[in-house]
Amino acid sequence: MKITLKVWRQKNKDTKGDFKTYEHNHVSTDMSFLEMLDVLNEELTKKNEEPIAFDHDCREGICGTCSLYINGHPHGPLQTTACQLHMRSFKDGETITIEPWRARSFPVIKDLIVDRTAFERIQQAGGYVSVNTGGVPDANAIAIAKNIAEEAFDAAACIGCGACVAACKNASAMLFVSAKVSQLALLPQGQVERKTRVEKMVAQMDAEGFGSCTNTYACEAECPKGIKVTNIARMNREYFGAMLSSYQIESGGGE
Amino acid sequence: MKLDSKIPEGPLAEKWTKHKFNLKLVNPANKRKYDVIVVGTGLAGASAAASLGELGYNVKAFCYQDSPRRAHSIAAQGGINAAKNYQNDGDSVYRLFYDTVKGGDYRAREGNVYRLAETSVSIIDQCVAQGVPFAREYGGLLANRSFGGAQVSRTFYARGQTGQQLLLGAYGALNRQIANGKVTMYTRCEMLDVVVIDGKARGIITRDMITGKVESHSAHVVVLCTGGYSNVFFLSTSAKGCNASAIWRAHKKGAFFGNPCFTQIHPTCVPVTGTHQSKLTLMSESLRNDGRVWVPKKAMPGLKSKDAANIPESERDYFLERKYPSFGNLVPRDVASRNAKQVCDEGRGVGSGLAVFLDFTDAIKRVGEDTIRAKYGNLFDMYAQITGENPYKGPMMIYPAVHYTMGGLWVDYNLMTTVPGLYALGECNFSDHGANRLGASALMQGLADGYFVIPYTIGDYLATIGWNDKVGTDHPAFKEAMDGVNVRVNKLISIKGKKTVDEFHRQLGLTMWEYCGMSRTEEGLKKAKKIIQDLRTEFWTNVNVLGSSNELNQELEKAGRVADFLELGELMVDDALNRTESCGGHFREESQTPEGEALRRDDEFAYVAAWEYKGDNQPEALNKEELKFENVKLTQRSYK
Fold it and tell me: Is the pLDDT of residue A23 over 90?
């Protein structure tokens, strides 16, 4: 099949980018979307034109590296990652527009590659249980109800790709942050730091400049891993609960 | 050079305990005087960096991805073994040890494997404490399953995303140390050389993949956790970025390379659809529990799944059931893979010719579509998504693919390479798996090395050298190594030839797959050696890398990695040439039983082949570490 591509090209973060149009005549329906770009890139290289830079790695939908905004949707028309999207989802002769994630907190590095280190800093602010290696109890010492473990897993399945931010008109990172907050708020291991964790992660999220949630649910609709907006509700509840009692934590005992 | 594995003396079960006591310690107050470099942030790297940071060392960690969370450990599906015996079904540390040594076809060290089995139990405790959501039973305790033909249920799992959840646990621990200031994290940063001064590893040279800046980092020790080299084959189940550059540069600086030809080939992957194919996707081998593998008796080129039902039973060849009546479709990975290749080589492959059917028709008739959906629904969905075909209506097509490398840098019991101060952990060392890795053992090894081995063994070396024994980046050796990296990068950019990097890589991959894959002959291997040498020469005169070196340049990154694969590929061929026995997944056609099965030769080959670099375009020297088996009796595997 043949397609027309409109691709965002931008040399680096300091230069202005624009769309460039490519006619792609060697597309097979069996190709993944990224393989379609690989083939185009080889053709460009043969013509001594610089290939299109795009992020990708595992190509099996789990690493969360790929980050293409395709025809107005993060990861394209299906609720999956771009690497798992195949060209059979498009029509012969179609024009496909590819952009990077658009969000102030995800500055463009080059072409379709953005800087998602804001997500790293949010996780560093508290997305863990503070246990050192060794000296932990036996794994079966604490029983966890199966439904609770399953719900924690559903939240833990987030791959950190940033599609939720790209989908949101406010560029909110609430779905991403709430997934980790939920996982650890649900599990007994996360209880000790439950309040400080949500406070710190939300504070970092705000500091990174992500927008607020206005309940459009676009994030859930586009999330390749089906992370639910109920996590956002849980995070809000956790946050208010923490804020109402937080002065004790901050001042070390409420004296 | 005499290889000293440093396996402690004494009974198997006491070796590690005794060894830990004999290792020197670094005083807690002195730990902050030591700098540690960790390269790679998969299970081994993230767990090592976090654990060493917790102990008080100053750690610098590096990964090529934009986040440590994206390392390819994340893609492991099935599970992680541990000798917990929670199921009361007769598992023990000794049984896990025994299964692993046997599964590795007796080409692994007893001492290392026993330690691996011993530490496996602590790994599960650690991960649960971190909040890893393992599968649980209704009573709230952890669930287990039997995996890869094991007779006991010792595999812990988190749906089909065990690697992801374990890595996110280690990533959390790493993040905590980053927040505490004990680990400095460098993302999108690739290691391009290791600096060795006076025979000791002193630091590394890196390239910032955004700015292109080449930089030096010095430390008391360098710990490589950079994963496997399956991408030598171009097509594999590895992530696109997985590469051998870190271990290959270390090899060229004096670290011996152990058993490079030991690669694992997984029988159930989605077949290649065309030259555009960029990677392969693995389907869990649990599918073989209910699926029947077959091809037509007579060649029927281009046979499609939807037409399979028209082939009468009498014209089908269920080749695994026919040749191995007692194991049938459940023969081990290596046997299943080799036989699939054989029938395709005979021209009886289906689809593109490089595929066999995995048919669930009988299973669906027997237990119903709903039961099959409940068992394998997610795998069937994944297959449908990739291929666009409905596996409930016609058989799946599968073909083997490379997905793990058992070979890697040679390390002693302390995980130190032959370069003092240079360690290798996880898949990048030649490891504990021998000639064949059992399912659910890779995650176990990565985390054992990072959480529970290196924190002990690193202290012994550091306490021995002392904190004053450090060389700064102002030493001329760092400048020299940086110059070397810059020269190489600029050379790649300046060739401006006619062929793309991927064209070279694809050609190398096809050569390796054809001659150094599942089935090998002396003739084929010699041919491959010549092809690789010619390809390498052509690469350095005819590759086209556009753009410049001082910006983000993905073609340049790829070119550097492929240049290394073109050297490593030849060493793999040399190793395969030397090992004239069949063992593990490596079938040497000259070494087979009268029935055509793999014939191992313990009298000649019960050793680790540790290769020593001798200079560019010089033959490498072979060093042998004899493997002693004091506890396990060596037997020939049979699945008839």
Answer: yes
What's the structural domain count of chain A? Answer: 2
Answer whether B404's CB lies under 8 Å from B442's CB.
Answer: yes
- What domain range includes position A10? 3-110
For this complex, say whether ipTM is above 0.85: yes
10 Å CB burial of residue B551 (0-12, 13-18, 19+) is: middle
Same domain, A63 and A174: no
Is pLDDT above 60 for A251?
Answer: no
Whether residue A137 is found in the same domain as residue A164? yes
What average pLDDT does the segment B443-460 reach?
98
**Residue that terminates a domain, selected from A110, A134, A150:** A110
CA distance B168 to A147: 21
Asked whether the predicted pLDDT for residue B638 surpasses 90, the reply is no
> What CATH number did the domain enclosing A156 receive?
1.10.1060.10
Given a cut of 50, whether residue B12 has pLDDT beyond it is: yes
Same domain for A237 and A125? yes
Are B599 and B105 in contact by the 8 Å Cβ rule? The answer is no
Query: Which tens digits make up the pLDDT trace of B459-494?
Result: 999 999 999 999 999 999 999 999 999 999 999 999
Ranges of each domain in chain B: 12-22+35-262+406-463, 265-403
Q: Percent of chain B at pLDDT above 70? A: 100
Please name the member of A64, A131, A152 whose beta carbon is closest to the beta carbon of B133: A152
pLDDT over threshold 50, residue A254: no
Question: What does the buried/exposed string (b/e) look like for A121-131 if buried means 16 or more CB atoms within 10 Å of the residue's CB?
Answer: bbbbbbbbbeb
CA distance B441 to chain A (A): 19
By the 8 A CB rule, do B314 and B298 touch? no
Residue A39 touches chain B, beta carbons under 8 Å: yes
Active site residue B32: no
Q: Beta-carbon neighbour count of residue A26 at 10 Å?
A: 14
B618 interface with A at CB cutoff 8 Å: no
Tally of CA atoms within 13 A in the half-sphere of B13 that contains its CB:
6
b/e A165-204 (16+ beta carbons within 10 angstroms → b): bbbbeebbbbbbbbbbbbbbbbbebbeebbbbbbbbbbeb
Q: Structurally, what CATH architecture does the domain formed by B265-403 represent?
A: Alpha-Beta Complex (3.90)
pLDDT tens figures, B551-582: 999 999 999 999 999 999 999 999 999 999 99
Q: Are B82 and B64 in contact (CB under 8 A)?
A: no
* Selected catalytic residue, list B249, B333, B437, B588: B333
Residues of B in contact with A12 (CB under 8 A): 551-552
